[in-house]
């Protein structure tokens, strides 16, 4: 069975987990503490980050974008990149939006300051970084609400990799209790639909020792 090297609150790992579940592809998970710079792991992925998948035949795949495109090719049903060329381009645009902009402005700062600093023994969280991320998230939730209010899903009428990417990042931040759902009803309604999908149950079941999620985290109805 394929093996996924991941970290619990890494949104890119979560994205791959959701795609694997949507396509009903079996996998085992191994937590990789990337800060250890383990020699054996660097040998299979010199970039030293997760996610990484090792296929049954020993093929190594790294980078969540490359992995998701690979999974789309080997298991095209159900499709996660769907529609006309324009529609597929829109899906990829939104994936890039969340994997780059949302990550840089929200996911990475909050996870790094609130979790990774403690794990690495790098001192207390920087309140200025956290405050900036809390301010930035409102713009992104408004954008999600705008898209979801004009389309059935973020990129169009079909559930797609764009929704998966957005939900992967939001789920990591929501685990920390940092999503102001009460201020963004449209985004909250969209996320409630994501939480009700079978592929998301594994994400909602995550429980990191010493860092429990807020009570609403695993509740599909908030």
What is the gist of this entry?
By secondary structure, the protein is α+β, with helices and mostly antiparallel strands. The chain has eight helices and four strands; from the N terminus they run βαβαββαααααα.
Can you put this structure into words, describing what you see?
It contains eight helices and four strands. The protein has a domain of 113 residues: Glutathione S-transferase Yfyf (Class Pi), Chain A, domain 2, CATH 1.20.1050.10. It has a four-stranded mixed beta sheet with strand order 2-1-3-4, covered by helices on one side. It is an alpha+beta fold. Helix content is 54%, strand content 6%.
In what range is the share of β-strand residues?
A: 5-15%
CATH architecture of the domain at 85-197: Up-down Bundle
**What general form does the structure show?**
globular
CATH domain topology of the domain at 85-197:
Glutathione S-transferase Yfyf (Class Pi), Chain A, domain 2
Spatial gap, N to C terminus: 34 Å
**Can you summarize the main beta sheet?**
4 strands, mixed
Number of strands: 4
Level-1 CATH class name of the domain at 85-197: Mainly Alpha
Category from helices, strands and their pairing: alpha+beta
Helix content: 40-55%
Q: Can you give the mean pLDDT?
A: 96
Low-confidence stretches at least 5 residues in length (pLDDT < 50)? Answer: none
If strands are numbered along the chain, what order do they take across the biggest sheet?
2-1-3-4
In sequence order, what are the helices and strands, one letter per element? Answer: EHEHEEHHHHHH
Helical stretch count?
A: 8
